[in-house]
Amino acid sequence: MGDAEKEEVIKRCTEMLDEMIGDITVPRNIRKSLGMLKNKLLDNGESVAVRAATVISDLEELNSNPNVPSHTRTALWSLVSYLETISVE
Asked: What architecture is the 3-87 domain classified under in CATH?
């Protein structure tokens, strides 16, 4: 996977995060956590693979929160799947 493809995956993931952050049915503390994850993804201080692996770990932790609505939990697992295409390389 080339750098342009990796950045496209990051762009799609940040768009998905934006959708969840804008969803008022998601509790405020969860939306705040999602905003921090988005910032981690966009932080150019690390390589794309390191950012993806870090965010995957944080998403898995967030998914264990019982306050996450089921539709958001499904979207979070989709995000993990997208990000895993980057981190395995």
From this structure: Up-down Bundle (1.20)
